[in-house]
Amino acid sequence: MLSAVWLIPALPLAGFLILLFWGRKLGEPGAGWLATSMVAGSFLAGLVTFAGLLGQDEHHRQFVFTLFEWLPSGGLSVDMGLLVDPLSITMVLFVTGVGSLIHLYSIGYMHGDPRFHTFFLYLNLFAFSMLMLVLGDNLLVTFLGWEGVGACSYFLVSFWFERRSAAVAGKKAFVTNRVGDLGFMVAMFLTFASLGTLSYAGEGGVLENVASLSGTTALAIALLLFVGAAGKSAQLPLYVWLPDAMEGPTPVSALIHAATMVTAGVYLMVRMNPLLDVAHGALTVIAVVGAATALFAATCAVAQRDIKRVLAYSTVSQLGYMFLAVGVGAYVAAIFHMITHAFFKALLFLGAGSVIHGMHDEQDMRRMGALRKLMPVTAATFIVGWLAIAGVPPFSGFWSKDEILAAAWDSSPVLWAVGVVTALLTAYYMSRQVFLVFYGEARWSEAARGRSAEGALTTPDHEPAAAGHAPSTPHESPGLMTGPLVVLAVLAAVGGVLNLPGVFTLEHFLEPVFEDRLHELSIGTGIQLTLAAVTAVGAAMGILVARAIYLRGAAPAERFEPELLRRAWRYDEALAGFFGGPARAFANFTSRVLDGRAIDGAVNGVAGLVRASGSRLRVVQTGYVRNYALGLAAGAVALLGFFLLRTGLV
Q1: In this predicted structure, which of 68-72, 95-99, 161-165, 490-494 has the lowest mean pLDDT?
Q2: Is the model's pLDDT at 469 over the cut of 90?
Q3: Do the strands 63-73 and 76-84 form a parallel or antiparallel pair, or are they unpaired?
Q4: Mean pLDDT taken over the chain
Q5: Cys bridge to 400: 83, 225, 311, 337, which one at CB 3.0-4.6 A?
Q6: Does a cis peptide bond (omega within 30 degrees of 0) precede residue 394?
Q7: Coil, strand, or helix at residue 389?
Q8: Residues 208, 197: Cα–Cα separation, whole Å
Q9: Is the distance from CB of 174 to CB of 245 less than 8 angstroms?
Q10: Sheet strands (E) in 136-278
């Protein structure tokens, strides 16, 4: 059963190849159903592999399936191999499970798009790349998948490249991720130079031998890997690409933000947990950056007006939570929150897509309202996702977030305080979104749209859609779109049972991966319950404050949506100003002085010297035989004189 692992990445790859050559003939909806069936088949293969893994002794649940020898070069030998262990199969199951639901949803969402088959071609390639990333048995295969999801993010974010904003967002995602990828590459080079291998498992593998590294080397590798993780998982200062990734179709947002790409950095850090335990300083850096990112992104989300952009900053914030968990050594809590986040964030993004579809491509929440009666399934499922991410018990987000906050308290009360404030803000801005979209007045009416035409509702981010014209009545989405919402709503509601004390828990399943590195809390049960109560009260406070402002009108909403937060503390603008100003001037200077004068001058100088020397030597080539004969004679006399002098005869 374990040998079925090769089918997990092979099926999406086969779907990609079929769509590449015959996708246009399959057309709509055939291309969508093919792509969906391939990812669903990958999920079934994952279940078979999972069952085979459970059949093994819990301390021997590690299996390497070698496909072929990939790179034999001197001392470097890299196999194209797949590593099956509790961590990789956990990632496989939620990536393929949630991914197949997103594929199914996309069949309805992308209906009528002229490049329907191309979209699903990219989705299958994305799924294949992510599966290679999590299943690779060495750093190089992981990096292959890592670069694959980076390339696919460019294709998908800029899918509607006819819009300049989408094309720019795709380039921004690609370039920003290349910055992080440099850290990953240098970390690989340093790992091979220090240990002579890139493989994870086995007696000669990286994970078994990191203890032999010096503290400085281990810290350097860990921090370089974290640079790569920060780029892929959108942590400060490399988060800037993720909010702009909203320019892609909504299923892309769900796939990138929930199930695949952004979780890659967290997975890499958790996979390299023995290295982090050797490089203790790296854990502190990871925890601080994660906490700072969580709080920063939460403050940005409270003032966003685009329904998808709120969720984008929410993703950045929740990823910060996961890195906070990694930084305090709570690796299981990080994976647990990754899984529950995949459930409720995929639900929220797909729910937002359903709202956009029902609102005829409107994304400004100020032009929505009172949609729960017209879109009952979307509203009900979205509310489940809201309660889960807000941390309301007994929904899944409460349990995973509570584990992270308990571990943070055990490590540093300051980190815990940042986490609690972030949790309160999360409840507030998600409640704000729900109240603006599904409750209150129907601001999509003809009168409201008329006010929009006069400029009352205009935002710099969006042009007023059909200003001055009566909008169509919002409507519920088709079954292909609402079906996945219902499934995800159930998972978001009950997903917390995965790690509740019992016979089979996520922590018990993952224990062989972490061996003696499982985080054990030193605080008592009473303190844990108190901390959980504080978190729940904070979530309730956030919901009540949002209700008072956005439903009761206790205070003008504009006071709580400052321009500074809506523009994300002007961080993007500062980057644009720096790279468009001093950085560009410095680049021009180095191009002109170093490249133009120093490097080009040296190259051109050598060429000029050779050319001048050749011109002077050329005069001796007269073409007359008598001159050459005279030269031979002179040379012979010179040689004769030399030998006579050397032998002492003269």
Answers
A1: 68-72
A2: no
A3: antiparallel
A4: 90
A5: 337
A6: yes
A7: helix
A8: 11
A9: no
A10: none
Beta bridge partner(s), residue 63:
84
Q: Cβ neighbours of residue 433 under 8 Å, at least 6 residues apart?
A: 307, 310, 311, 365, 386
CA atoms within 13 A on the CB side of 421: 15
Q: For residue 199, what are the β-bridge partners?
A: 138
Q: Give the Cα separation of 85 and 52 in Å (integer).
A: 11
The secondary structure element, H or E, covering residue 18 is: helix 7-54
Of 95, 107, 82, residue with least CA distance to 482: 107
pLDDT of res. 462: 37
Q: Residue 429 and residue 314: Cα distance in Å, rounded?
A: 9
Average pLDDT of span 110-128: 95
Joined together, the tokens standing for residue 248 give: 């892609």
63: phi then psi, degrees, rounded to nearest 5:
-145, 130
Q: Is residue 193's pLDDT more than 80?
A: yes
Find out whether 431 and 392 touch, Cβ atoms under 8 Å: no
How far does CA 490 lie from the centroid of its chain?
25
CB contact at 8 A, 362 and 368: yes
Would you say residue 537 has pLDDT above 50?
yes
Q: What is the C-alpha to C-alpha distance for residues 575 and 583, in angstroms, rounded to an integer? A: 10
User: Which pLDDT tens digit goes with each residue over 409-438?
Assistant: 999 999 999 999 999 999 999 999 999 999
DSSP state of 84: E
The model carries a pTM of 0.89
DSSP code of 553? -
Q: What are the φ/ψ torsions at residue 64 (nearest 5 degrees)?
A: -110, 120
263, containing H or E segment: none
Nearest CA to 357 among 268, 491, 246, 474?
474
Percent share of the chain, pLDDT over 90: 71
Q: Could you tell me the pLDDT band of residue 650, with boundaries at 50, 70 and 90?
A: low
Token readout for 90 is: 């956990």
Q: How many CB atoms lie within 10 A of CB 507?
A: 19
Q: Is 556 exposed, middle or buried (0-12, 13-18, 19+ CB in 10 A)?
A: exposed
Distance CA 511, CA 313 (A): 32
Is the pLDDT score of 208 beyond 60?
Answer: yes
Q: Which residues are CB-neighbours of 449 under 8 A, at least 6 positions away?
A: 367, 464, 466, 467, 468, 469, 470, 471
